[in-house]
Write a structure and sequence with these properties.
The protein is elongated. Helices cover 38% and strands 19% of the residues. Helix 1 runs parallel beside helix 4. It is an alpha+beta fold. The longest helix has 37 residues.
């Protein structure tokens, strides 16, 4: 039975033998930043579906942006493990701030493949500005014809001369409406997962158009569709080997899913804590709800 005298967000978290003092320190740092810079503004931001751009640089200054990247790139917690990522998702959803998380955390899945197997010149040009909060990114995978079914993707990148020509569309993309660059999954070869490649694409090109996701019914106005019409992509912006993009894509999707699970559990725990707190105050039938059968 839950001890309602101490059933708050933290007390409801199941104990874990894998959490160490450094994880607790990371949680404290995140919570301090969120409580100071995000929570007081959430109601206003949710009405507009977005937040000010300076939140990126504030997160950098607070040391909570760039998790898992080397200090040489401007990152923090270079050796961050899965639990650091889970804590990041938990803390951002403790007050339901998925609006912020959805955009502010996108770099953590869009940029690692670039660092791991991108062209050195492209890494040198983009990674530091991204981790400084100056360039915003998107992770453009999902299409209207398929989400997890990557083998069915139809967006193509045809090799022409010293680059590729990108055509197609990506749907339900986080940060689509505000991102400058995107890691795009496109078909460069035959059918199936063996014909996919990762491309680092400049979304500011005139051949890229964007539209908010219609009927999403959520409060993040930056989630949307990216349309590509004859968008040139330099061959140096191929990330990894041609037609082997799925090998780099898999780990990113796994990270995204673990974070999603952590976020949902955090919101459920927050809702439970709020319900218990209310039950300790609400009077009915002559006593508190918490004292009823």
């Amino acid at each position: 039975m839950v001890d309602v005298s101490a059933a708050d967000f933290d007390a409801l978290r199941p104990p874990s033998p894998f959490l160490k003092p450094e994880h607790a320190a990371w949680r404290d740092k995140l919570r301090g930043f969120i409580d100071a810079e995000i929570t007081p503004h959430l109601s206003a931001w949710e009405k507009t579906g977005t937040f000010p751009d300076d939140l990126y640089t504030k997160a950098v200054t607070a040391g909570v942006y760039g998790m898992g990247f080397a200090a040489a790139y401007g990152g923090v917690l270079e050796n961050a493990d899965l639990y650091h990522r889970i804590i990041f998702a938990e803390e951002f959803h403790r007050h339901g701030s998925g609006l912020v998380y959805c955009d502010l955390a996108t770099y953590s899945i869009a940029v690692p493949p670039l660092v791991a197997s991108g062209h050195p010149d492209v890494i040198a040009k983009f990674v530091k500005p991204i981790l400084a909060g100056e360039i915003k990114t998107a992770f453009a995978v999902t299409e209207s014809t398929g989400g997890s079914d990557v083998a069915g993707f139809q967006t193509t990148a045809e090799r022409k001369g010293d680059g590729y020509v990108l055509n197609g569309s990506k749907a339900l993309i986080s940060s689509a409406m505000r991102a400058d660059m995107a890691l795009v999954v496109a078909r460069t070869g035959g059918p199936g997962i063996g014909g996919l490649s990762l491309l680092w694409v400049d979304l500011r090109h005139p051949g890229v158009t964007r539209a908010p996701a219609p009927g999403l019914g959520w409060y993040n106005a930056n989630i949307g569709t990216l349309n590509f019409k004859d968008v040139p992509v330099p061959v140096t912006h191929l990330v990894g080997k041609e037609n082997e993009g799925f090998m780099s894509l898999g780990p990113q999707l796994s990270t995204e899913r673990f974070s999603g699970v952590a976020a949902m559990l955090a919101m459920a725990r927050a809702a439970t804590a709020e319900a218990i707190a209310w039950a300790k105050e609400r009077q009915a039938f002559g006593k508190r709800l918490a004292d009823q059968q």
